[in-house]
Amino acid sequence: MTDVDQLIARSTELIDRTRERAESQRRMRRRNTGLARRAGLIVSADLAIVIAAIVVGWIMPIGMGGALLVFALLVAVTLLLAFVSLEAPVTPEKLVQVPLKALPLRTEQWLETQRPALPAPMQTLIDGIGVRLETLAPQLATLNEQEPAAAEVRKLVGEQLPELLKGYARVPLPLRGVERNGKTPDAQLAEGLQLIDREISEMSEQLAQGDLDSLATRGRFLEIKYRDDNAVGG
């Protein structure tokens, strides 16, 4: 191996480690946010129950039985809010109805449900797209839903990305590594995810520059080969 090859290998390894570290931090932030939200709901609900019990106690004695009932209610509500999912499951069909500012997060949540069924290299690509979506989210918070640029973002993130993964999921597992028209479904999925990653990055850059006209008129569509030759999902 030449010095150049070694340098490239070290650079690639560093990039991979950096991406993995960013992905780990991203997941930790999401988990902490979810825990904080859940804890806040538990405290609010329990406080409401205690206040209601105090008010009722002023009007009429609740006695030992009433106190036990309040305690049981506090335990039940706490356990319910601690373990029950606070959000409805995300589906590709629902993504098209999600408000634009919430689209990156909801898409990222859906990607998390698809990740375990993908090969390891595809999981890495999905993680990278998740990082892109996290960067895109605050930028979309101030973008008007009626802007042509908003339609372009929604098309890529809420429609084309889910369709890519849904098409791949329809391919039987034994056929995903079999070439058809020169490419395997695995290779086509990787190509599509890389293209989406680049598109989201460019969209984010244009939004950061305030260049909404360029974003709205770019007229780009995913050029996924399997859509032409039906190699994936056909």
Number of domains: 2
Secondary structure tally: strands? 0
Helix fraction, binned, reads over 70%
Rg: 24 Å
Net shape: elongated
The major β-sheet equals: none
Mean pLDDT: 78
For the termini, the CA-CA separation is: 42 Å
Low-pLDDT regions: none
Strand residue content: under 5%
Category by helix and strand content: mainly alpha
Number of helices: 9
Q: What oligomeric state is this? A: single chain
Secondary-structure element order, as H and E?
HHHHHHHHH
Quick take:
The protein is 73% helix and 0% strand. By secondary structure, the chain is mainly alpha-helical. The longest helix has 57 residues.
What does this protein structure show overall?
The chain is an all-alpha fold and 234 residues long. Helix 1 runs antiparallel to helix 2. It has nine helices and no strands. The chain is elongated and about 80 Å long. The protein folds into two domains: 81 residues; 138 residues. The longest helix has 57 residues.
